[in-house]
Amino acid sequence: MFTIIPNPQAKPIDAKFGDKDLIRRSASSITPVAQRQPEVAKLIDVSKCIGCKACQVACLEWNNLTEEVGVNVGVYDNPHDLTPNTWTLMRYTEYENPESGNLEWLIRKDGCMHCEDPGCLKACPAPGAIVQYSNGIVDFVKANCIGCGYCIKGCPFNIPRISKVDNKAYKCTLCSDRVAVGQGPACQKACPTQAIVFGTKDEMKKWAEKRITDLKSRGFKNAGLYDPPGVQGTHVMYVLQHADKPNIYAGLADNPRISPIVELWKGGTKYAGLALIGLTAAFGFLHHIVAGPNRVTDHDEQEAKRLAGK
Amino acid sequence: MASTEVAPGDAVHRGPQVTVDRYTRGARINHWITAGSLVLLAISGLALFHPSLYWLTGLFGGGPNTRAIHPWIGVVLFFGFLGLFIRFWKLNLWERTDNVWLKKIKDVVTSNEENLPEVGKYNAGQKLVFWSMSILIILLITSGLVIWEQYFGQYFTVEQRRLAVLIHALAAVAAICVWIVHVYAAIWVRGTISAMTQGRVTGGWAWRHHRKWLRELVSGK
Ligand code: HEM
Ligand code: SF4
Ligand code: SF4
Known about the structure:
The complex is a heterodimer. By secondary structure, chain A is an alpha+beta fold. Chain A has helices spanning 54-62, 119-123, 150-154, 176-179, 186-190, 201-217, 260-266, 268-291, 298-308, and strands spanning 22-25, 40-45, 88-96, 103-111, 130-133, 138-140, 161-162, 169-170, 196-200, 224-226, 236-240. In chain A, a hairpin with a 6-residue loop joins strand 3 and strand 4 (103-111). The model of chain A has no long low-confidence stretch (mean pLDDT 95). By secondary structure, chain B is mainly alpha-helical. Chain B has one domain (12-90, 113-220): Fumarate Reductase Cytochrome B subunit. Chain B has a 3-stranded antiparallel β-sheet with strand order 1-2-3. In chain B, helix 2 (63-88) crosses helix 5, helix 5 runs antiparallel to helix 7 and helix 9 (203-209) crosses helix 10. Chains A and B meet through helix 3, helix 7, helix 8 and helix 9 of A and helix 2, helix 7, helix 9 and helix 10 of B. The structure holds protoporphyrin IX containing FE (HEM) and iron/sulfur cluster (SF4) (2 copies). Residues 38, 41-42, 45-46, 48-49, 67, 70-71, 74, 77-78, 137, 140-141, 144-145, 147-148, 168-169, 172, 175-176 of chain B line the site of protoporphyrin IX containing FE (HEM).
C-alpha cells in the first residue's frame, strides 16, 4: 500500500512555492530559478481504477466548480468532454483484447498532463497567463489570460477549455494550492483504490515500476509507464496495461509533442515576420533618401493643359 | 462605353490649373474605413504576434479587449474591402503593357517615367497591391474565422485551428508589408494623397503618372 498523505495541520503554513519559483512564464523572458524544487508527479494507475468518478467529484468540490446536468447518450463518460468546469474526466473504453479474447474496461482519467515542455505555455501570447513552477506544475493565471485560445492550439493533449462565461482558459491546476501547503491533489485524496498517487516524480516512477512488475506477472506483458519523452516527460503519468498502444485508452496520444505547425508559428514566423516588416519599411526609407520624391514638374502641368485644351 | 480606363465620376476640369477628379466621395469614405480598420487590425494583431509588442494592447483597453475587438474590426475590413473591390476590380485587370511596366521597374524606382509605357488609371504596381490585398484579405478572413475562438472554436478541429493561426500570421505579415509599400508609394509620388483626401489630382500628376487615363478622359469630353 502507498502511504496516505496525512491531513493538513490546522495551523496555517507558508506556501512552499510561488512566483519566485518559476522556470517558465508565458510571453516573458525570465531567468529560471537556479535550484529546482524536487519535481512532483501524479501517477494514475489505470489498472487499479474502478471508474467511480470520486476524483471527478473531488475536483469539482475542491475547485468550487459546478457542471451542468448532462444527457445520457449511452456511454459512461459524463460530461462527454472536458469543459471549463470539468478539469478531469473519466473516459471509458471497452477493449477486446485480441490475444486473450477478454473484454477489458479501460478507464482513463483525462486531464492536463503538466508537460515538462508545455505547448500551451509556449503558444500563449499574454505575459504571465501560463506559468511553470520549478516543481513541474503548469498553472494558468486567470488575471493575465485574455481568452485567445492559443493554448488550445499549443497543447498536444487537447486539454484547455475557454469559458463562455468569462472568456478565460481553464484546466487542471494539479491542485497547486494544495501542493503548496504539503497536500496531495484533491483527486488523489478522494481515490478509494489509490489508483491515483502523488509524490515526487522519482518516487512515482519507483512506485510505477512495482506496479508494472505486478501487472507483467499477471500476463500484461506490455504493461508500462506513460511519461512521454516527446514533451520531455510529464508530471501526470499513467501506468498502462498496454503501454505499447496508448491510443486504445480513449485516444491517448501515442507520441505526443508540440505540433510542428505550432513550432513554426511561434518560432521562425515571428522573427522572419518582424524582420520582413522592418526591411520593407527600411527599403522605403532608404529609397526616399536616395531617390528623393517623385514630383510633378511645371512641364507636366503645361502638357496637361495643352492636352486638355481650352 | 468604349473607354477602358475611366471609372464613373472621373472627370477633367479645365482652367488656369487643370484638375482631375479621381475618386468620388463614396469611394473615399469607403477607402478610409478600410484603411482605418486595416491599421487597427495590424496594431491589435501585432500586439498578440510577439511579446515585445504586447504593450500595444493598452491602446485597445487591455489584452482581453484587444482579443475581443480584433476579429470584429476584421469583419469591418472585409466588407470595406469588398466595397473597394467591387468599385475597382475592372480597372485593375492585368494588361500586356503591365508586363512591360514591370520589366522596366528600374525606371520606375528612379522616376524615369518617360521610358515607361503610358499608364491607365492604375499602373502595374498599383494592380499588384490591389490583387495581393484581395487574396490576403480572403486568407485573413477565412483563417481569422477559424481561430475566432469565442464563436467558431467548436466548429473546427484543433489541427485545423493550428493551421489557420499559422496562415493568419503569415498572411498578416504579408498584408502589412503590402500596406507599407502602398503607403510609401503614395508618399513618394507627390500629389497622390489628395486623390484620396479631396478626390482630385492635378492635371500634371495625371499627365506624368497616368497619361492614358488622362487622354481617355480628355477625349471622352
Ligand atoms: C479579416 C478578418 C480578420 C479576422 C476575422 C481576424 C481574426 C483574428 C483572430 C480571431 C485572431 C486571434 C486573436 C483574437 O482572438 O483576437 C487574430 C490574430 C491576429 N491577426 Fe487577425 N483577423 C482578421 C484580419 C487581420 C488583418 C487584416 C491583420 C493584419 C493586417 C491581422 C493580423 C493579425 C495578427 C498579426 C494576429 C496575431 C497572430 C499571431 O499571434 O501569430 N488580422 N486575428
Ligand atoms: S486563452 Fe489565456 S491562457 Fe490560453 S493562450 Fe490565450 S491568454 Fe494564454
Ligand atoms: S497537457 Fe496541455 S495544458 Fe497541460 S501542460 Fe501539457 S500542453 Fe499545457
